[in-house]
Every structure is written in C-alpha cells, then in structure tokens.
Amino acid sequence: MKKKLLIINGPGLSDLSNFNEFGHDNLTLEKVQKKCLETCDSLGISVDFCQTDDQAELSNYLLKASKEFDALIINPAAYSNAASLDPDLYASNIEAMANQKKPVIEVHIANIFQKGVNINSPIKASEGNVGFVSGFGIHSYDLAIRAVNKQLSQKS
Ligand SMILES: O=C1C[C@@](O)(C(=O)O)C[C@@H](O)[C@@H]1O
C-alpha cells in the first residue's frame, strides 16, 4: 500500500509574491503544489497538500496527520514566530507523530536564519524523526519529500 504524506502550509502562504526579494522569483503555492505532487508521484507516495490561515484548522490538520498519515511536512510560516500560536498545541501534535516514529519535517522557503529575516525558531520536539529544511525555495519541499521517502522505506 502507498505511504500517505500530508503537507501543511500555514498562514499567509497562499501568496508567495513577497519571496521575490529573496531571489525566489515568481514562486506561487500552485507551483509548489505541482512540484510536490510530481515528486510524490515519482516516488510512489500518496500526498495531500493543504494551506490554511486559521489556527483551529491547522490543529485539525495536525490531528489528522498523526491519525491518518505516515508522514508530515509542515511549513508553519508565521506560526513559527507568532505569539498567537499555542506552542503546547503545536508541539503536542508534532510529538504525537514523532512518538509513532512517523517522520516530520519542518520546511521554509526562505532561510529563516538569514540576516534581515524576522526572528523565527524551528519546531522543538523531544523525539527523533523531526527534521528541518530551510532556504532552498521550492526545493525545500522537494528535499523534504525525498528525505521522508528514505525514512519511510527504511521503516518497512
Ligand atoms: O511566512 C513565512 C514564510 C516562511 O515560513 C518560509 O517558508 O520561508 C518563513 C517565515 O519566516 C515567514 O514568517
């Protein structure tokens, strides 16, 4: 049976035009989605790709991830530094995945540690299997999918 991957995109990511100034020209979420679907297809992974600006919806997706999916890739976007996000809610769902040894990768289009980028901090989880890819534009997602695929194939 095909492994199931959920890719969640957080608030603001429906419009990627502000990435032009970081050299990721003309990037759109549709292009990112297309690339992800192609990569998953070539690796034999089934994928759901979603975006939300709403915290409640995001936590529903996270709950779904740990119950119904084998792996999660998440771009938390503004939530990685927003004071409004409940960090326990976020961390507990991520850890629910990690506790089941399901790979989780946080991705960012931009390098969030780059000078001039607002201060962000990556997911903090106590379990292993949580990775991080940042700064490679559309390729951040591609790299994350390939890493997830490796981890999933080592498990089976
Ligand atoms: O919304 C975003 C996008 C982002 O997550 C990225 O993909 O590069 C980086 C964050 O700093 C920013 O708040």
Automatic annotation (TrEMBL):
Its EC number is 4.2.1.10. It is an enzyme of class 4 (lyase). Pathway: Metabolic intermediate biosynthesis; chorismate biosynthesis; chorismate from D-erythrose 4-phosphate and phosphoenolpyruvate: step 3/7. SUPFAM superfamilies: Type II 3-dehydroquinate dehydratase. GO terms for molecular function: 3-dehydroquinate dehydratase activity. It catalyses: 3-dehydroquinate = 3-dehydroshikimate + H2O. It comes from the Bacteria. GO terms for biological process: chorismate biosynthetic process; quinate catabolic process. Keywords: Lyase. It holds the Pfam family DHquinase_II. Coiled coil: none annotated. Homododecamer. Belongs to the type-II 3-dehydroquinase family. This is 3-dehydroquinate dehydratase.
